[in-house]
Amino acid sequence: MEPRLTHEIELNKRYEEILKRRTTLLQEMENLHEQHENKKKQHTMDVEAAIERNAQLLHDLQKIESRLKTRSFTHPDILSLEARYWASVEEKIPEWEPFLLGRGPTPVRDGEKSQRKTRRKKGSSQDSPPTHTVTSLPPRSNPKTVS
Whose CA is closest to 137, among 91, 108, 100? Predict the structure, then answer.
């Protein structure tokens, strides 16, 4: 009968160890859950703060934009120059479009062509300017009308 009693005691000890480990694991899981909840709350607060900050920045930008739109430029020559500049840019877009899209060479005027040919004949290939591929068009404002 004694071997059975020792076996029973051994099983009882193992059972108690299992219960202790279970309690420890449950406590760890609760701690991890609390940490996760705290991180979620902090993240939510950070997101709300970012949304608020972005809304304020957008509001400030809109105010600045409206001020700039209502502000009159003092000299009409500036407006005239700007309008002529953008008109010339729009006039040259078809000529430059293949180059700007990275599909063709740089457009060159007649006087520049002859200068480049003589440079190439005189200098080596290292003297020629590097060609750059442009992937996007530069920013452009709308031409303003002169009142």
Answer: 100
Do residues 127 and 119 touch, judged by C-beta distance below 8 A?
yes
Residues 80, 146: contact at Cβ < 8 Å? yes
Burial, 143: exposed, middle or buried (Cβ in 10 Å; 0-12, 13-18, 19+)? middle
Tokens of 98: 């293949």
Burial (0-12, 13-18, 19+ Cβ within 10 Å), 64: exposed
pLDDT digits (tens, 9 = 90+) for 89-142: 999 999 888 888 888 888 876 556 556 565 665 555 555 555 555 555 556 666
Rg (CA), the chain: 38
Q: What are the phi and psi torsion angles at 25 (to 5°)? A: -65, -40
Spatial separation of the C-alpha atoms in residues 93 and 138, rounded to whole Å: 12
Instruction: Give the integer Cα–Cα distance in Å for 125 and 42.
Output: 61
Reported as a single tens digit per residue, the pLDDT across 80-94 is 888 999 999 999 999
Q: Helices (H), strands (E): how many in the chain?
A: 3, 0
